[in-house]
Each structure stands twice: as C-alpha cells, then as structure tokens.
Predict the structure.
Amino acid sequence: MEITKEREPLYKKWWAWIVLFLITAFIVNWTNNQADYLQADEPEEKTFPVMAVENESIESDSDNDQPLTFQIGVDLPAGEYLALAQNDRLGYILSTRNPNLTVSEIIWQQHFGNHTIVTVNPGEFITTNHVTLLLIDDAIVPNFVDGILYAGTYRIGIDLPPGIYTLFPDDEQVGYFRTSTSSHPIDAHIIHQQNFTEPITIALNEGDYFTMMRAEIRK
C-alpha cells in the first residue's frame, strides 16, 4: 500500500516568508514614492506677510497695529486717495486680486513716509498698515511746513505750483525723486526719475505727479 505524504502548509516554508517580505517591501516603497510625487506636484501656497517696516525709535500711539483690508467697490469707492502714514511710521499699502494675501495675487505694494497719493480700481483688495486713507477730493495734501516741503507725493498745479525747485537729500542718505503721469502705482507712465546725493534742481510741470523720498525742498 502506497503511503501518501501530507504536504507541509505554505506558511511553514522558510522561503515563503522571504518572498512575502520582499513583496511587502516593494509595495511600501512604491507607495512612499507616489506620496512624494503627489506632494511635489502640489506645493503648499505661500502666504505674503503683511507688515510695514517700522521706525524702531518711535512707538505707535495706536492700540491696533493690525493690517486692515478693504474691497474696492464694496468697502471703499474706487478712485484717488491720499494715504497718510500714522504715528511717524512708514505706511504700507498692498493691492491684491483677492483677500487671501498670497504672493501670486499681488498687484502692487508701497512703503512710504509722510504721505502718498494712489489710485485704486474696482475689484482690488487694499490692505493697509499704519495708514489713514482719505478720498483726495475730501483731503488737503500736506504742504510747506516752516519753509520746508517734506518727502511725499504732490500734484503739480494743485498741491504745488509748477516751477523750478531745488531738492536737498536728507543727511547722509541717497535722495530720490520721480515725476509721472498719474497716481496709479503700475499704470502711470514715469516721466523722469533719479537718485541724488547732492542738491539737484528740477523743473516740475503742470499735471505732473511728483514723488520725493529721503529728500526735501526748501523755500
């Protein structure tokens, strides 16, 4: 009578466990590679920090230093604004296409001392820090104080008469001036701009927008 030998179960064979281990290692490695690929294909969106560059020697008198965001056409009307820097700090204005404040949605941004004039369009989201916004028709643009016209933006023929002016750079700083055709930060055509370290004489014409930084005009 022939005796049939009972086969040993597969799970008791040593080589079966080695094969199972190799298959498992392959699957885990493939899954990790796929996860890395998907993560690289969809990078996390960067957020733009909305902060003004502050004058460290002067503390704000305001209890609220948080940026404020306005939708143009909803919270504020479109148009031209006088922007006043608050509490002797540099003002900051950021324009974006949506309120998420991401780098890819930035239209323009400005840091400024004293004041500037900007035009904002419907649909923009304007974020400000240390800034007071006034519609230009309801505002008085700062002018000469004790014979000195300080850095800022001026409309020639409205805020400042046309004429020949001498610009003086602030002590040990590089002064800068620009004349342009409008107050929109990116749509305006720049007529002339220049850095200077010594007094410079320029002609300002009717209709120009004149911006001066790190400099002043003396009567």
